[in-house]
UniProtKB/TrEMBL annotation:
Protein name (record): DNA translocase FtsK
Organism, scientific name: Nostoc favosum CHAB5714
Annotated positions binding ATP: G379, R380, T381, R382, G383, G384, K385, S386
Sequence ranges assigned to domain FtsK in this UniProt record: 360-553
Gene3D superfamilies given in the database record: 3.30.980.40, P-loop containing nucleotide triphosphate hydrolases
Length: 722
């Protein structure tokens, strides 16, 4: 890179040109500087370094900027963290490819993931072993520092458990009060401080020595002296929930409400696995609306004192208003901790797992109850829907034999239910697209009709519960649970949405009495996609965390209930029937403990089935073959469902003929009357009951006239068939 003699400016111009050419040829900055250093004086070396910096800066500014979807960005970051990529590497790459706003999002996402992600069982075991080694070879203060360096709340909880056990052993070894107070002063973690001070109080009471520990190190935590002094129950006193801290938090909350001119009185507090619940009683004349949306104000007022990072959920309960404060040491409710599958199942009362409430009480969802029957659920990604669904399926197939429970599964995402393929409980292979789902639902509609025909053969039997009470356990009519994941994709499919909607409306209208239950889930509960008639026929709702308040309102069926927005994700959900419960769903952990998961599946396949199941005689494969035989394969799904009139054992196909007599059976009359009472217009009723619109021409007019005559006859007191 030798330059001819001349003035300085000319040389700089030549050097600039030479460096640009070298960069285009692929030379690195270090190679270029080395060549300049060998050929030119030191003043030109400094100039070359400046030129390289300017070129690099311009290259960064001239690169194309891509606006990434934030959900996609979060998922990529999460996968990178799990893979072991360092924060520095992630931030460096994102600084290169993201906008400033997205880069800021990345920083907060990293903090959130480190804090909230559920570590694998291997990682938990590894951290636990490392803590035990620290305790065995180093002073406990080293363990305190190690725990303080951990960001993840679940790994911190492991550390707290190790600390509690170690403090209990120290308590039994007759350590002095000052030893524990000194330990408390050496830790900056408030939980560890509390454990140390509580142990000091226990020692003081056992030894009879006076101690004044009403305030913790910083004066913010009031301690309660234990009522029991027996060393056998000392562990319970040390590891007991921070109820006293919660009482103090409740009084602090009441004081803060007073600052907002909201008169309230502290009632009590409860500790749940996901959140702590503080109940207050509002003063006379204070409206709930004044506290309904106060969550964000509490974050900025009490964020440091209560550890609030997100707004707490505020709800009305009998006797007061509750504030759900997220726990910093949140716990998971593991599926395997709640079931042993010993003993015979109750074949009359089929249920699925719900979750754990704020009292730590396990709550089940009874499908046999009239308040449940069908369930509508939804929530955003990482809300916990898939875990809830897998827990329900795993419980059903392991608890009940195929003669008692059958499953119909639809999974268009193809990743959630695939591992359940091959189970004897399935009425058909897992449906993985709109077409196979439409076939599955049509099959269930036909199965429903055959079941009601069976009921007609026995006097006074109208439901599956009555049928099984009369004939079981010698003869059992199995319940069929149809679980559909991501119905938004199905109902957005132009080719099959009509068939799917029609089948769903028929099933939701009366399949519950026949023992066929629909569980419908989606990430996007769009009101323009899911027909209001479909949504209104779900007596039970399960709302996981949503991104938008309107999604919460749609799922819960209440245009004022936005509480699902304040849920914490990862299985935290609202279960609504006649009341609303906030539960922590059970975590199956099929990825962390695959041996246990596969063991239950194997037991489900090989379990003893001592019952004889009622059979409708309807084979799924034959049904689909006949269905395809009646349709042109190119038009399947695109055409409207054929309008038919049903008698007890016969169906008449009216396609292509208009000289037919329409007979409304009891199902059609009830549906028409129900929709009419709800204010539906004639064309809407014909669409909902017969799946016909004005585009169907004479068929539509024929049925519309029949419906109109039927409604007019009711006004005149006649209820006979037309």
């Amino acid at each position: 890179m030798l330059l001819p003699n001349g003035n300085i400016e000319f040389q700089k111009q030549q050097l600039w040109t030479a460096i640009v050419q070298a960069k285009q040829d692929g030379l690195g900055n270090e190679e270029i500087i080395e060549n300049v250093r060998e050929a030119l004086p030191s003043s030109m070396v400094a100039y070359a370094e400046t030129v390289l910096k300017q070129i690099d800066f311009r290259a960064k500014l001239s690169r194309s900027v891509v606006e990434f979807d934030l959900d996609f960005l979060f998922q990529v970051i999460y996968e990178s963290v799990i893979a072991g990529t360092s924060d520095e590497e992630i931030l460096s790459i994102c600084a290169e490819h993201c906008t400033l706003n997205q880069y800021e999002f990345v920083r907060y996402a990293l903090e959130y993931i480190h804090f909230n992600r559920m570590p694998s069982q291997w990682e938990q075991n590894n951290v636990y072993q490392e803590m035990i080694e620290i305790v065995n070879i180093s002073p406990i203060e080293s363990l305190f520092k190690y725990i303080e360096s951990i960001k993840n709340i679940y790994l911190k909880q492991i550390g707290y458990e190790v600390v509690q056990k170690y403090l209990y052993n120290l308590f039994l070894s007759n350590k002095q009060i000052s030893y524990f107070t000194d330990l408390a002063n050496k830790s900056r973690d408030n939980f560890i401080k509390n454990y140390c001070y509580r142990t000091a109080v226990l020692v003081a009471r056992v030894t009879g020595n006076p101690v004044d520990l009403k305030l913790a190190g910083d004066g913010s935590i009031i301690l309660r002296e234990p009522k029991y002094l027996d060393s056998d129950i000392a562990t319970n006193e040390i590891v007991s929930s921070n109820i006293l801290t919660m009482e103090q938090a409740g009084k602090l909350l009441v004081d803060t409400l007073e600052d907002f001119n909201i008169n309230a009185k502290y009632v009590d507090a409860k500790n749940g696995p996901t959140f702590n619940r503080i109940r207050v009683k509002l003063g006379r004349g204070v409206s709930y609306k004044k506290v309904e949306d106060i969550g964000n104000d509490l974050v900025q007022q009490l964020g440091e004192e209560l550890g609030l990072k997100v707004a707490p959920m505020v709800s009305v309960v009998p006797g007061g208003v509750v504030f759900d404060i997220p726990r910093l040491d949140r716990q998971f409710a593991y599926f395997r901790d709640y079931f042993t599958f010993d003993g015979e199942p109750d074949i009359y009362s089929v249920s699925i797992p719900g979750g754990v409430d704020v009292d730590g009480t396990y709550v089940e969802i009874p499908l046999y109850s009239d308040n449940v029957t069908h369930i509508l659920g939804g929530g955003r990604t990482r809300g916990g829907k898939s875990q809830f669904e897998k827990a329900a399926i795993l419980y059903l197939v392991r608890r009940y034999p195929p003669s008692v429970v059958r499953l119909a599964l639809s999974d268009v995402k193809r990743v959630t239910f695939g591992k359940f393929d091959g189970l004897p409980h399935l009425v058909a292979p897992v449906a993985r697209d709109a077409e196979s789902t439409a076939n599955l639902l049509d099959y269930l509609v036909e199965e429903m009709e055959l079941r009601y025909q069976e009921f007609e053969c026995h006097s006074s039997i109208e439901t599956i519960a009555q049928y099984n009470l009369r004939f079981a356990p010698d003869f059992v009519m199995p319940r069929v649970i149809c679980l559909i994941d991501e119905c938004f994709d199905l109902l957005s499919d132009d080719n099959y949405c009509d068939r799917i909607e029609t089948a769903l409306m028929k099933l939701l209208a009366k399949a519950g009495g026949a023992g066929i239950h629909v569980l419908l889930y989606t990430q996007r509960p769009d009101k323009n996609v899911i027909d209001p008639l479909i949504r209104s026929n779900f007596p039970a709702k399960t709302a996981f965390v949503t991104t938008r308040p309107e999604d919460s309102c749609i799922i819960l069926g209440d245009d004022k209930d936005k509480r699902a927005v304040y849920l914490l994700g990862y299985g935290d959900f609202l279960y609504k029937t006649t009341e609303v419960l906030r539960l922590q769903a059970l975590y199956v952990a099929d990825d962390e403990d695959p041996e246990y998961f596969q063991q239950l599946l194997l037991e489900a396949k090989n379990q003893n089935d001592p019952y004889t199941a009622w059979q409708s005689g309807l084979d799924f494969d034959e049904f689909v073959a006949n269905l395809y035989g009646e349709r042109n394969s190119k038009d399947i799904g695109k055409s409207k469902a054929t309008a038919v009139t049903k008698t007890k054992q016969h169906k008449t196909d009216f396609e292509g003929s208009f000289n037919f007599k329409v007979q409304l059976d009891e199902e059609a009359r009830n549906s028409i009357l129900n929709l009419h009472q709800k204010g539906y217009q004639l064309d809407e009723i014909v669409k909902a009951v017969f799946n016909l619109s004005r585009q169907d021409g004479r068929s539509y007019k024929k049925f519309r006239n029949v419906v109109e005559e039927f409604l007019n006859s009711l006004k005149g007191g006649e209820e006979d068939d037309i």
